[in-house]
Amino acid sequence: MSLLVADGLAVGYGGAPVLRDVRFAIEPGERVAVLGPNGGGKTTLFRTVLGELVPAEGRLDVHGRCAVVPQTERSRLDFPVSALDVAVMGALSRLPWWRRPGRAERATASAALARVGLADREGTTFGDLSGGQRQRVLVARALVQDAPVLLLDEPFTGLDAASADRLETLMRELAAEGRALLIATHDVEQARAWDRVLCLNGRQVAYGAPAAALTRPVLEATYGTDIVDLECVEHGGHTVVLPAHHHHH
Amino acid sequence: MLAAVLDWLADPWAQALGRRALLEVVLLGLAGGALGCWVVFYDLAYSAESLAHALLPGLVVAALLGLPLLLGGAVGLLVAALAVALAGRVEGVGRDTGVAVVVTTLFGLGVLLALSAETPAGLQDLLFGDVLGVSDTDLALAGGLVVVLLGALAVLHPRLLAVGFDRGSARGLGVRAGVVDAALLLLLAGALLVAVQCLGNLLVVAVLVAPASAARLLTRRMAPMLALAGALAVLAGVAGMYLSYHAGTAAGASIALALVASYGVAALARPLLAR
Fold first, then answer.
1. What is the spatial distance between Cα A11 and Cα A58, in angstroms, rounded to a whole number?
2. pTM of the model
3. Of A88, A168, A206, B182, which is most buried with the most CB atoms under 10 A?
4. How far apart are CA A31 and CA A193, in angstroms?
5. Which residue, among A89, A93, A106, would best test binding to B if mutated, counting the most B CBs under 10 Å from its CB?
């Protein structure tokens, strides 16, 4: 069964929809690149999946829990919490408000940290970890939430090549375990290696397998004037898109 | 020699007055130190100071009418909170500016009332505290505050941590940031109400901000920080009372100075401990 189904979805913030014509069905085990310019609707789509925004038209069916892996710079690096403390936060959604996470929750969090390769970093202060390690702690927190749908918000921003490889491997494994991963990204090249791409620019421009969907007209309709051709050897003659900005809010 | 030292140490507590003051300072230190850690991490220091100053007219009116100060303080807090909320909505005036105007107005009003002809002497006690004038009711209130506050902080701890760490993700984790904020503000208002009578309108913020900031310099986790802040606040409170007794200085101000000094000591100790 599909984990996420959008059918004629349109969403806005009270006024005219800022994202419309969204139609897709995302299956377990799929890594979906969510591409688009800043303000193209990536964040709006995520917020709708989380139930923070209500569809103005159409419908979005979510089968199962969703967990977000936010950008690491949104958290406070001066906060006195360990990697384990952060992972344990993932257990709060399943506890009543008066209950504190106990031994069982800490064990789950500890296992999640081991799962992302950070078993030896449990006691390290979050702010002392590298960017890639912080991102994996936040993935572990999402795993503690035990959600079949993971929303990753530009997880590769600021990572060096080794950390990015490590995260890429982890994402492949998480998908292989039957989760669906929606990954907001600016990197079209990276998206070619994943299972699906969803191109948004105020509306859905394309959805499908990367090879079929990432055509030149689709990229032009997605990025407009932001598109830059770089026919260089290292990229095998593909069209490389250099977005104007690396952050969206 | 030893006897002289022991006398020096025991003298301030020889009378019931001193012992009650000691108990009050210990209780308020525990409450203020622990709560202060969250005040610091939620950037509420300015709010705490504003609320403390703005509730002065409530205290003065209560003193004028012979009503309990706690009641006057509570009404003063409510009026201040409403005024701040309204001032924040005035177009073209920033939030900080609005708060500053409201606080200065209310504080000025309080002083004006206190200096009127029919006011009984005692404005000083409202401004700078009256540690030695602690009543049984004050002690009971402070005890109640400690129990409620520490209990609430223990229950709220994981949620306070989640919201403080990343407010934007809190909702996705099933934690409502607004509810956590409101609970923390309520605890802050309660703590100010109880502590303001002992430590004074102008000095009460010291117990919230100084020990917590000092503990933050020396700890890497929230739980030890809370414990250390409480311990530092109690130690500084006691040190301030010794200073007051032996040097003949004002008790509230001596305690406030000792609290701030705890931050200075922590700042000096940090590089030594880091080695």
1. 9
2. 0.88
3. A88
4. 9
5. A89
CB of A247 within 8 Å of any CB in chain B? no
**Contacts A100 to B, Cβ<8 Å:** 154-155, 157-158
Tell me the chain A residues in contact with residue B225 when contact means C-beta distances shorter than 8 Å: 80
The answer to whether B155 faces chain A, any CB pair under 8 Å, is yes
Q: Could you read off the pLDDT of A208-219 as tens digits, one per residue? A: 999 999 988 898
For B16, the token pair is 């019931």
The domain B16-120+134-274 is placed in CATH, from the list 2.60.40.10, 1.10.3470.10, 3.40.1400.10, 3.40.50.300, at: 1.10.3470.10
Give the closest-approach CA distance of B65 to chain A in angstroms: 41
ipTM: 0.86
Strands A149-153 and A180-184: parallel
Dihedral sign from CA coordinates of B245, B251, B253, B258: positive
Give the chain A residue nearest B216 (alpha carbons).
Answer: A80
What pLDDT digit, counting tens, does each position of B180-226 carry? 999 999 999 999 999 988 888 888 999 999 999 999 999 999 999 99
Q: Do A80 and B175 touch (CB under 8 A)?
A: no
